[in-house]
Amino acid sequence: MDTIMEPAKSIPVIEEADVCVLGGSCTGVFAAVRAARLGAKVVIVERQNSFGGVATSGLVNVWHSLYDNEKRQQIIAGLSYEMIERLKKRDAIIDVEATLGVNDCNAYRLNTEELKIELDNLILEAKVKPYLHTHYVGAKMGQDAIEAVFIHNKSGRGAIKAKVYIDATGDGDLCRDAGLHAYTAENMQPPTACAKIYGMNLLGDFNLPFMLQKHGEEFGLQKDWGWRGKIPGMPEVSMHAETHVFDVNCAVADMLTYSEMEGRRQIRAVMDLIRKYAPNGKKISLVNLCSYIGIRETYHIESMYKLKNKDVLYGTRFQDAIANGSYRVDIHHSNEPGITLRYLNGVEEVVRGNGMPHEFRRWREETEVNPTYYQIPYRSLVSQKVKNLLMAGRMLDAEEEAYSAVRVMVNTNQTGEAAGVAAYVSLAQDGDVRNVNANDVRKLLKEGGSIIL
């Protein structure tokens, strides 16, 4: 490969802070806000024009249940719950469990445009210094610590120096540059391009999944499985995640580019199919496309503890637990249509989609008592190699089935909150996140509104 030498240049330090968060998804925002509310000086860097990540730019407007599997005990609160309450004041959320009285893991449907504004408010209220339209481009490393990170935006290249860094980039960009071991799963879960469509309510009993199965090939669509849902306050508009882009790693530039364009092509194919085969099909309109594709999985970063499949499936309790979850194991097939769902009660469900019947079986024998939730330990946010780096979000170190459950937003949001609190705790000690007492983190999380079990 041919190379070009870039002349060395002096990079101005544009910010010095206690904590620097890279990535402005809800996970990253919640990390920044929790640290700032405790008194830390915090900077957050986001490459998009708004905060919220896949929830906002990706249009994925679902947050899952805050309760255990039996809906008897609330297990998640913190900033996820606070945001839900804030959105309720603007009629920007549908509480499925409360309004419909159903046992549905897809518990909340969000107006993600309102969420963008509420996240801005959250950042400003906490006095976090935000940088939007800003790309992380590299790190300056010391012996076992990060000395600075480099960013690039409309003002040019700059450096941010902090005492603690939180990688909430999703792909583990800072972690990889810091020399931490990154790996990919053998069966990486594929991404989905989402869209908002007007007029689906005008199509009568038109069965979109069945028609995709029947006519999808005509429009260049593979056999696939998808889902869709309501948007608060907009009965004529619905969110659709109907397809996947297979065999890609969206942390690789060429594959990310292909995925974005292929995802949009698939959405147009779905629209063309509806226009041709649905009654009143010509009345529908494409309202909005995701500004980036909904990525489920790329790199995982090796931590002090790799979450095991059995930890999730059998509800292992951790003394250093910083997050609780009840979302089912949800494996989007990487090489065939559908998903496999595993529940904590021992039932397995295979969903082929597109009108095909679901398959039910057991992944383990029946037991008298079933776990109702699982946990994520603090150790899974920490590496042995770098003393001032925490990781939060979907780069979590986890086996395949464990990851497919913990990857959803209400779970990763909690890892962000824990990272923010742990960063603050480390500032009062020796600055080494590896030495943080998890009990101190758990105590402050609870005092800040999280549910600690």
UniProtKB/TrEMBL annotation:
Keyword 4Fe-4S included in the entry's annotation: yes
Keywords: 4Fe-4S, Iron, Iron-sulfur, Metal-binding, Oxidoreductase
One of the record's GO molecular function terms: metal ion binding
InterPro entries in the record: FAD/NAD-bd_sf, HdrA-like
Protein name: FAD-dependent oxidoreductase
Species in which this protein is naturally found: Clostridium thermosuccinogenes
UniProt cross-references to Gene3D superfamilies, sorted A to Z: FAD/NAD(P)-binding domain (3.50.50.60)
Top-level taxon of origin: Bacteria
PANTHER family (alphabetical): COB--COM HETERODISULFIDE REDUCTASE IRON-SULFUR SUBUNIT A, FERREDOXIN:COB-COM HETERODISULFIDE REDUCTASE SUBUNIT A
